[in-house]
Amino acid sequence: MPEQISKYPEVTLKVLKEAGAVCGEGAKQKILTQCPAERFCSLPTGEICVYGINDIPKMTQITAQELASVVCPSAQQNAEVAVGMSSMEGILFGSVFVAGLLLGRFWQKRKISLRSRD
């Protein structure tokens, strides 16, 4: 049974009631048992749970990530690029660190060998 998102959930519930749905307190919830009673409607053909925009985190069938991938696809791509950039930066910094260690050892050995010649 579907969960619905509406900018105006009260209007959606009113329309459903006027169309013959049993909505709100007292309507028996068979499938959408997690739906808040005041957002629940029962029809002869099924059940509907109407959520407002602020109630999206309470939904059980649609996750915030699924919704974000549709609503803000560029933000998701930017997040992936940011993660990729931080990985590349980590590799770069690690390489510089290792190179520094190797150069330090090389210079230290060279310094020791020059002193032993004196």
What's the helix and strand layout?
Layout: E1 3-6, H1 9-18, E2 22-23, E3 40-43, E4 46-52, H2 64-71, H3 73-117
Parallel strand pairs: 1-4
Antiparallel strand pairs: 2-3, 3-4
Helix pairs in contact: 2-3
Word description of this protein:
- This protein is α+β, with helices and mostly antiparallel strands.
- It has two domains: 62 residues, no CATH class; 45 residues.
- The chain has three helices and four strands; from the N terminus they run βαβββαα.
- Strands 1-4-3-2 form a four-stranded mixed beta sheet, covered by helices on one side.
- β3 and β4 form a beta hairpin.
- α2 packs across α3.
- The N and C termini lie far apart (88 Å).
- The mean pLDDT is 81.
Notable characteristics:
alpha+beta; four-stranded mixed β-sheet; 3 helices; 53% helix; rod-shaped; 118 residues
Main pleated-sheet profile? 4 strands, mixed
Percent helix: 40-55%
Q: What do the pLDDT scores average to? A: 81
Per DSSP E runs of 2 or more residues, the count of β-strands stands at 4
Structural class: alpha+beta
The helix/strand order is EHEEEHH
**Largest beta sheet: strand ordering:** 1-4-3-2
Q: How many discrete structural domains?
A: 2
Low-confidence stretches: none
Cα shape: rod-shaped
N/C terminus separation: 88 Å
Strand share of the residues? 5-15%
| Rg | 31 Å
Put simply, the count of helices is 3
